[in-house]
UniProtKB/TrEMBL annotation:
Pfam families, alphabetized: adh_short_C2
Name of the protein described by the UniProt record: SDR family oxidoreductase
Molecular function via GO: oxidoreductase activity
Family classification: Belongs to the short-chain dehydrogenases/reductases (SDR) family.
Keyword Transcription regulation appears in the UniProt entry: no
Organism: Kribbella antibiotica
Record keywords: Oxidoreductase
Coiled coil, from the record: none
Record carries keyword Oxidoreductase: yes
SUPFAM superfamilies from the UniProt entry: NAD(P)-binding Rossmann-fold domains
InterPro entries documented for this protein: NAD(P)-bd_dom_sf (IPR036291), SDR_fam (IPR002347)
Taxonomy, superkingdom: Bacteria
Amino acid sequence: MSKALAGKVALVTGGSRGLGAATVRQLAAQGADIAFTYVSSAEQAQGVVDEVQALGAKAVAFQVDHADTAQAAVLIDEVVAAYGGLDILVNNAAISVEQGRKIDDPDADVAALDRMHAVNYLGVIAVIRAAAKVLRDNGRIITISSGLGSRVGVPGLADYSATKSGIERYTLGAARDLGPRGITANVVEAGLMESGMAPDPEVLKILLSGLSIQRVGHPDEIAAAITFLAGPTASYVTGAVLDAHGGYNA
């Protein structure tokens, strides 16, 4: 079986579960050596490391709180120290809080919303900035967004949507800045998934009703889009937003 990513080093933030873990597995199956971050469960992270090693690739897990932007440069230094370089960055780490609460809700947990902005927006920017300095020529940056990054659609998701819209624009800016080095930067707008951040049931019902394919997706379906963008056949795709959300914007 051809391994299109043999010899490449990939970093996946938030890679210990859900879409992140599915992406780690698919990149490793294509031959990439893997670094990934996790925030709390060392046991869960070790399970993913074991899976990658069973595929014949290397894996190292790093515990990182992406709300602390100072940790981004340290992370990138550790990845380069472990593997000697970096070729692929997948910005997947994210949280979702206060779903369904409108911006004028007096009971909204503003501190939780601020932390979400720190993880989903500032944390992603910090990792991209740090990685851009060491990414090898012809590398890949892939940022995981959401259909909510381009269309809110329902009440109570303004803050989450804003974080996703922000990182989309930043990633497309990176495509412009890094294009002369052959580095591509693209966005995958992920949809509702069987695992991971499940919306409030009422919000879920509304979101599903707006899809062209009215079901939640499987992480492997979205990871396949990410793996395509990470591979050699996507060398002329940059500054793109690839929808993998069941037709939310159709």
